[in-house]
Amino acid sequence: MNCSENNTPAPDYRGSRLFKKLRHGIGKAVGDFGLIEEGDRIAVAVSGGKDSYTLLLLLEELQRRAPVSFELVAVNIDSGYPGYRTDVIEGFLKDQGCHYRMVPSEHYSIIQEKRRPGSSYCSICSRLKRGALYGVAQELGCNKLALGHHQDDFIETLLLNQFFVGSLKSMAASMLADNGVITVIRPLVYLVEEDIIAFSRQAGLPIVCCCCPVCGTADLQRRRMKRLLTELQSDIPHVKSSLLKALSNVHPRHLLDPSLRRVPNDE
Ligand code: SF4
After folding, report:
1. Residue 52 above 60 pLDDT?
2. Mapping DSSP to helix (H, G, I), strand (E, B) and coil, where does residue 197 land?
3. Can you give the residue range of the structural domain that contains 133?
C-alpha cells in the first residue's frame, strides 16, 4: 500500500468478514503461543504503518472479548526524519481512545553521525528504535511489547537468513528480550500481508510515511524474497503456509549444527 495514503478511519470494519478472519488469526496465535496472560500490560509499537495500526485494532478487539484482562498502551517512536507525521498518528490514537505515548528521539542525527558509509540504514535505525521501545515499555510499567510482524515477515526473514547469512533462523512469536524484563510478542504471525493491506484500505487507516532517506527503496533483498515467494506461489499455492509450518516442525537431528547433536531422537 502507498505509504502516503491518508484517509479518515471508517467506523464499520468490525462487522466485515475480513476483520473476523484477522481476529480469528490473532486469537489462534495468542492461544498457540500463550502470548497474552491475565494482568499483562502491553506496549504496542505503532509506527503509522498498516501492520502496526492493524495490530493495535486487533488487540483492542481482543481486549473487549478475551476472558483475561490486560492493558494496552500504544507507543510511537519518532526517529526524527523530517516530514514524519506524528500528528496524524496521534490523532488516530486519540480518536480510538487509546492510552498512548509519543516519544521524540534524536535517532536521525545519531544515524547520520554513526553510520558507516555503505552500511545499511535500516539495521542501525531499527536497533535504535527497538532499544527505545524497550526503554519506554519498561518506563510505562509494561511487561510485554507487541510488534506488528506478520506471516510474510517471518517467512521472508527465514529465507533471508538462509540465502544471505547462512543461518537457519526466523523470528519468535514470543521471546524474552535481552534486557530480561520485556517479552516481545508478535500476535500477527498467522496473518498474511495481503489481508492486512486489504483491511487497512477497508478501514481507511491513516497510513503515514516513515520519511526516512531509504523509504520505499529499503531492503532490496527482502523485496527479492517477496518476488521469489510470489513466483513460487503460482506453482505451489501453499508454499507460504508450508514454510511457516516448517518453523514449528523442526527436526534438530536432521540438521548440521553440532550444538544440536545431543537433542533426543526427534523422529
Ligand atoms: S525503512 Fe527507514 S524507518 Fe524503516 S527501518 Fe529502514 S531506515 Fe528505519
Report:
1. yes
2. helix
3. 13-249
